[in-house]
Design brief:
mainly alpha; single chain; 226 residues; globular
């Protein structure tokens, strides 16, 4: 029984790390910061501070909502074993499939309009004309009100394992996402065009990669519980 629990928790931690790292390098999280930094001639230290603030804001809103969802999963799993053994893994697999389908639909739309830019450059120009404090506030607010749904589903799975899993996910997600964003921003600051080309595949397949990870985690959860 203890061995099974350790396997479940280990699988959960590995999934948390993969999702957090993937999330941190998705271009639409860091490209706006780099573009604004270049247009405003921010120093490296300023870009790091802005990334730290924006990244923390984004992860904070996700974690707050995630903890609430995790507690729901915890309460339900206490009364129904079915929640942790079947429903939670099924949710991960379902969301994974939905993400892959959404990525395919978005890719087809982009091919029809021949547009490969996901960042609204006009919106960024408007923001860049504002005072620095207002720019940071606008960026932070935008990041706060855009929590990641795939991580929220994973918080539900964390709840079926226990409070320690919810806490571990919150800590891993916060630290790896913010640290990853800072690293990518510092690299991109030296050459956003070069890095952007290298991450072109990730930009257009982020949902698919996320979906695959969720499906794999869900299938492993099924295997461990059965």
């Amino acid at each position: 029984m203890l061995s099974e629990f350790n396997n479940i928790f280990l699988n959960f931690l590995i999934g948390s790390i993969f999702l957090s790292l993937l999330h941190s390098i998705i271009p639409n999280h860091w490209v706006p910061i780099v573009m604004l930094g270049k247009s405003e001639n921010w120093k490296k230290s300023t870009m790091v501070k802005v990334t730290l603030i924006a990244g923390f804001s984004h992860t904070l809103s996700t974690i707050i909502l995630g903890i609430l969802i995790g507690i729901i999963g915890l309460k339900l799993s206490e009364s129904l074993e079915l929640i942790s053994t079947i429903i939670a893994p099924s949710i991960l697999i379902t969301i994974g499939i939905v993400y892959i389908i959404l990525n395919i639909i978005e890719d087809r739309k982009l091919r029809k309009i021949h547009n490969h830019t996901h960042i609204d450059e006009n919106a960024l120009r408007k923001i860049s004309k504002r005072p620095t404090g207002t720019i940071i506030f606008s960026l932070t607010a935008a990041m706060f009100f855009s929590p990641c749904i795939e991580i929220e589903a994973y918080f539900f799975t964390a709840g079926t394992i226990g409070l320690h899993a919810i806490s571990a996910l919150a800590l891993i997600y916060l630290s790896l996402t913010v640290a990853g964003m800072i690293v990518v921003v510092l690299i991109a600051r030296k050459g956003i065009d070069t890095l952007g080309n290298k991450l072109h595949f990730l930009e257009h397949n982020a949902k698919t990669l996320t979906g695959i990870i969720l499906i794999i985690i869900g299938l492993i959860s099924f295997y461990i519980h059965h």
